[in-house]
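Q: Start with the shorter request: fold the first protein.
A: Done. Sequence, then structure:
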Amino acid sequence: MTVLANRYDFAVIFEVKNGNPNGDPDAGNLPRLDPETNKGLVTDVSLKRKIRNYVDLAHHGEDGFHIYVEEGAILNEKHRQAYKAIYPDDAKLEKAAKLNPKDDADAKKLTAFMCANFFDVRTFGAVMSTGINCGQVKGPVQMSFASSVEPIMPLEISITRMAATNAAEAKQKAEGDDSPDRTDNRTMGRKHIVPYGLYVAHGFISAKFAERTDFSESDLELLFEALVNMFEHDRSAARGEMATRKLIVFKHDNALGNAPAHTLFERIQIGRNIGGEFKAIDERLDNYPPARSFSDYIVTIDRDNLPAGVEIIEKL
């Protein structure tokens, strides 16, 4: 496989309808938001989880596409696989609680094994020095938090059920018991939703770090495929309707790049669609209804006077 030779920067634009894109466990699972601007947030960890899940679904069990960070995984047991490959005749490996490479050459072999076998290590990097030591590696792909383009308005929705949890509760209900001691668990709880939000996350892909993990051109295409489809297999009642709407990629013609990433991202402008006209978000929009669909926005890309050696690719 051809190791990645070009630097890339990308912006992924996605939406949520009547769902919670990323709940905050420290705030009762409310949608995450910036308290100063009330703009919604989705963590990089959340987005990487969806990429991992998609890759696992698309290539489950295939060599080179295993997932290192997955639910219920024991990371040290995955490290042990590397030691068994590097030291196949060492009978002590099976029960050892702590393992370290014998020298720098073996340390590199252990890290290389993890990169070759686990897509997310090869892509995002990992700290693999937890007891059974496989070193650590910085991945070529890094992502920012996603932020909504406008403030969001989280809603708290009560949810109920019709069934009783036990016979005593059913009897109380049947007998019309309205006493203060009545145990009525019909109200199940609450869920938090965002009626509509359009979010933008930025990503950065370093060809120089790709050399260290052997992140390839085909890995890059799989990453873009996952970004486009990451919500299609992440459906749940809590998520509502989420979808990737745009994936805009800036390709540099060399490994180090031809322009700062922030200047390229500034070429992407998202405004409100008011009668078919672009209205900047910072303009006063008080007299217009809140956005409730992607068609309420217009996304523009400034393609004029691009820095030499930079190409814009719209994947979606």
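Q: Next, the second protein, separately.
A: Sequence, then structure:
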Amino acid sequence: MKRIVIFIAAFSYAVCAHAGGFEQVNLSAAGAGVANAFAATANDASAVAYNPAGIAWLPGVSVSAGGSINFRNSSVKIPGGIAPNKGTEPSDGYLYATWAPRDSRFAGGIGFSPLYVIDNNWQDAFGTASGLSKLSVYRTTADLVYAINSDLAVGMGGDWYVTHANLTQGLNSFQGNDLGSFGGHASLMWKPLPTWSLGAVVRSGTNISISGKANDNMSFKLPDQVTLALAHDFAQVWRLETDVKWTRWSALKNMNVIKAGVVTQPNNMNLRDTLTAMLGLTWTWRMGTQVRIGYAYEQGANRSRNFNPMIAGQDAQRVSLGGGGNLFGIHADLAYQYVFYSNKTATGPYAGNYRDRQQSVMFTVSNQF
């Protein structure tokens, strides 16, 4: 396990590609393979991220670790031509562990994963006024789960957010960290019939407040989220799951940098709440070996009017393919995902026609003790 963690850390710093997203939705290779339609299944340690109530059906100790390689190509067409986003696309690792004693109704889990990442550079299109935007939010989560009976489990948990920001606009720069923001969540998994499973997760956002090195500060609100999921097994080898996730992006009003009561770096947002619909199909070829395919449609948070490319949120369609099996005493999962973002014609200070594409490769290794 020590070697796995070292590999993930090195891997996270070694890989970069052009662009810069925000929410990191792929939290395991098993989940990514079904386009993250995983909240009603959550049958490995990544349940900590997708639906912690699923820990109740993971007897003993389960550990899962992995990472992702992301390639993205985003640009904007303006009257002067096509200008690229020269930010670097984040590639990161994640780690989860769960414990469900066989003689107890209680279970627990902890996990670490990237949650939100921005790395954008639109200076070729809009000059130094558009600046460089780098912001990372990592989440450490802990859960306690109670199995009411063999069919129903509920969970409660806390989230600890660590944030780092590095923003530059014109002659103004901002660097700072927030190490103490907290939120919470509740989860449920219910299996009313042997072939049916339902999942629900409600996660609160939190207020991030970052103090800079030059007596300046930046505050913003992370969005609340609600996920509902339904899964059904067919012929003992097929599983179809559909998830719907609502995200309250309208809570994030701005990411302004303020010094002595004056806004030195304005980053006003005009975001809408979004829905994401996910559909995943899993085929169990034989015991411990699965093939997965998935599709998801995501609404983009950014409105066309007063579009802010700091969060270049456009409507997206995700297509995923993955699989997993036992190898040398551990279970390994691999997934590939292609994301097609709809072109968006934006108005306001950053007017233009935005284009975006993304490819991702995810891997996870796990074991149960």
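Q: Describe the second briefly.
A: Helices lie at 2-14, 29-33, 47-50, 123-126. Residues 1-20 have pLDDT under 50 and may be disordered.
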